[in-house]
Design goal:
Length: 205
Amino acid sequence: MRAYSFLSAEATSYLTGLRWPSAGTWVERDDEAIRASDADQLVWWLDDELWEVELDGEVRDLGRAFTARRARLVRRVEEWTDAVAEEFVLICARRARDRAVEQLAGRGRAADAAALAAANDVESIERIAARLAASEGAARISAGLAADVVLYARDARVASRAAGVAAYVAAFSLAGADKTAPGYSERFEAERSWQAAWLKERLRL
């Protein structure tokens, strides 16, 4: 079975600690250290390098990943780069921005909504959204989350981890930012699915 696995630059899984051998060399484990996913689940596991993986023998579905006792790296997916990770951060920031714009406009704050809508790069999104988050009104929460997408991504320092943080915060924002609210889980999963589809298309998987 062919699948994909995100690994660190040292070909190590941050989730299980497994360090893979060179491409083409089979690795065998009796535990669940061998993990790989289909393209639709990769957004949950972002890391430095993306590899196509061949799983051999009985393959078990763990939910967002597969495990097998035997596997090997087939090829590195060269389309996943720091530049693409940074592009993904921007995409996530813009989606969180759009939610804040919608809420500002819905509360009669047309000028603020227009100012935020005009912010297209991560720096201006963070700057304007942070200013609006410091103001009064219900929309300040979504504005603050739009700023947080950029802030937390920058704090992650490494491009792949920044992308992972940005994706989660954006999904939290678009889901309504209240995990106890009815429909939160469905909206969160819907946004994660949108992110996965974007990633899959961008990486030509």
